[in-house]
Amino acid sequence: MNVWVEAARPRTLVAGIVPVLVGTAASDRWAALRFIAALTVGISVQVGVNYANDLFDARRGVDRDDRVGPRRATAAGLITPSRMGIGAAAAFGIATIAGLYLAAVAGPWLIAVGSLCFLAALGYSGGPRPYASAGLGEIFVFVFFGLVGTIGSAYVQIEGVPAAAMVAGVPVGCLATAILVVNNLRDIESDRRSGKMTLAVRLGRARTRALYGLLLLLAAAAVVPLMVTVGSPWPGLALVAAPLGARAARSVVTRTDGPGLIGALVATARLQLLFGLGLALGLWIS
After folding, report:
1. Alpha helices in the chain (DSSP H)
2. What domain range is 107 assigned to?
3. What is the pTM of this model?
4. CATH code where residue 239 lies
5. Residue 186 to residue 233: CA distance in whole angstroms
6. DSSP state, 71?
7. Which of 193, 225, 155 is CA-nearest to residue 66?
8. Looking at residue 67, what DSSP letter applies?
């Protein structure tokens, strides 16, 4: 696999795609260029966050040789810090260009939202006190890859905020957060040794597993108020992903080793994609 593609962590890109699909479906409108621009923003921001995280964690000495999971390009010497910085800037630059187009057609206040997203993305693992290392990364993911991504994608279509988008942002955010939770559960030992105090490190294995299960249950439960909001049972199509969620949860509960949780991470990403596709289709039909 190309080192830049690997550093972008393709399996996590679903977190930037699903909010756009669901938000657009919740808007009940299809403006192709606006959809493409929103999708570009979602994917580019996710790539930018991954590149920046790769760079900043290497600088802090967080990515050690005993780390489980995909290799980190900067720490492994595959990409120099300066080039990784350029890569992150390029990804955020692409997101900025697409975002400026959306601001031009849907409202200049989106520039403020985009600026907040950019600052939040940098603060995730950069700056003097990165909040990913303070146990706050899950909040960032839920807010920006759940609520903001879903509601924002609906807004750029109709220049308004439908109730369906606000409700749909909750399960989308829960599953995006679940990806981070299982990722940090996998890395709990190496993060603890390097002093990276993620939420998983602070909670411990048992409570982190419980949090993961709670997020999956909340995502499923949130489908009910969404069906009530739109007055249709079709959003329930998202629940076709329930068997995959059960398998992922079983893997998280039963596997104690880091390598064994890699499969759970893949399953969780697939869960979010399948759930999101079902939710988007159901909203579109509704």
Report:
1. 3-7, 14-27, 32-60, 81-106, 110-125, 137-142, 149-158, 163-186, 188-194, 199-203, 205-221, 223-230, 242-254, 262-285
2. 3-285
3. 0.93
4. 1.10.600
5. 36
6. P
7. 193
8. -
Round to whole Å and give the CA distance between 71 and 187. Answer: 12
How many other CB atoms are found less than 10 A from the CB of residue 227?
Answer: 18
Cα 254 to chain center, whole Å? 24
256 burial via Cβ count (<10 Å: 0-12, 13-18, 19+): exposed
Question: How is 90-152 classified by DSSP, letter by letter?
Answer: HHHHHHHHHHHHHHHHH-TTHHHHHHHHHHHHHHHH-SSS-GGGGT-HHHHHHIIIIIIHHHH
Q: Which amino acid is at 71?
A: R
Report the number of distinct structural domains present in the chain.
1
Q: Are 205 and 185 in contact (CB under 8 A)?
A: yes
Tokens of 91: 């990804």
Only one residue has tokens 């409570």, namely: 207
Mean pLDDT by runs of 10 across the 286 residues of the chain is 88 93 94 96 94 88 63 87 95 96 94 90 82 88 95 96 97 97 91 88 94 97 97 96 94 79 91 97 94
CA nearest neighbour of 180 among 124, 223, 244: 124
